[in-house]
Amino acid sequence: MKKNILFILLLFTSMATFAGNDYAKYYQGLPKPMPTVVAPTIPDNNVSIIECGGIGDGITMNTIAFQKAISKLSKLGGGHLNVPAGIYLTGLISLKDNIDLHIERNAMILLSPDKKDHFKTEDGATDNKPTPGINASNRKNISITGEGTIDGNGKWWRAVKRSKVSDAEWNQFKLMGGTISSNGELWYPYNLKNFDNIANSAEAQENMRTHLIRFTSCENVLIQGVTIQNSPKFHIVPQRCNNVIIDGVTVRCPWNAQNGDGIDVGNCSNVLIINNTIDAGDDGICMKGGAGKSGLEYGPCENINIQDNKVYHAHGGFVIGSEFSGGMKNIFVNNNTFSGTDTGLRFKSSIGRGGTTESINISNIYMNDIKDDAIVFETTYFDNHVGAKKQGMATAMDFVPNFKDIHISNVICRDARNGITAHGEKGMIHDITIANSTIFYSNKAKDIDADCDIKLVNVKLVTYPAR
Predict the structure, then answer these.
(1) Residue-by-residue DSSP string for 264-303
(2) Do 454 and 420 contact (CB within 8 A), yes or no?
(3) At the N or C end, where does the chain have fewer CB atoms within 10 A?
(4) Structure pTM?
């Protein structure tokens, strides 16, 4: 009997969750209840990347070492893959069930600048497009933790707009080789001096840029403590996942990084985003729900809890859209600071990409130095990425944006160009309340179309006194 009890205790202690995280406190007093997230359970096995052949000299490729370490842990039922101080150059890292990628202080995982290292090969066949650097699909209990850094080496992937860089920066890009567009407005990392192309044109290669971290259809996910920077495209992308925690992460990339979103949550349920610091080239914390029929099939972003984050440069601090055909349900955004973003609270979409919002509650938002609008609703959004061609007016009225049941309160904003902006036809923006807020603007207090139903209650829109 004693042996059985001892065995049960050992079994219990060998399966360790991430202790010391009181996530339940973020679910007290919500406007609408949502399930409390739970950190993934990771077995108490430890494997160092070093013992699997890893070398952190910034030169040696560690792709195989990561594969060996993950395989070794997987055979043990899971555990912690420890990455000690050093710079570990690598290709793809694909996580499996019950595995924690733990990156210690002064350790950096640096994604290879050679785009050919980012293609999956299975059974002798190679995918026809790159895979996100750190990825997982249909996995349970996975995490990335620690105080180290993941760097996506994005400068070798991203096109650069001449208008967004200085002369000195432009010349630095040209030293890498590359290709300048015929009108001189774009530099592409195509025909580089030291690396081969992966497509037959600069434009085609631009369309092959991929994300840094993407988890698809996974359950019980934690990303905690690490710094994630310089993605080729978006930085953290959970898609169709359930029970996700992003806690205490720093996301950073150049302000002018094309599509350099910080955290993009797509069609996920039960997500907690807390204590993060984001300085991004595009949207900061963004909710996406797919475009058209596929978005509808994948379902809504639902039960999303976003608190105690700071967003510095970004196109928007908190964003819904542009695609959200699957819908947005029960999202709570509270106690966040946006400092230096282009817009603060941003709701963007267009016909063919829209869906319906339901029970969106936003409170205690503190903003300053907002380049454009403190709060903006836009229903004719155009994704102006490199090479994009503006489309004509939509003819089919399918997947129309339906921004409704959105309640914003206790916003303090100092120095926005415009206070509140809303553009949309009747039925696209309605049943919106903004209450108990103060916005200091320099250009225009309000620019709200007549067909937009936005109720302002005790909202102060203040500007400089007339002189």
Answers:
(1) EEES-EEEEEES-EEE-SS-SEEEE-BSHHHHHHH--EEE
(2) yes
(3) C
(4) 0.93
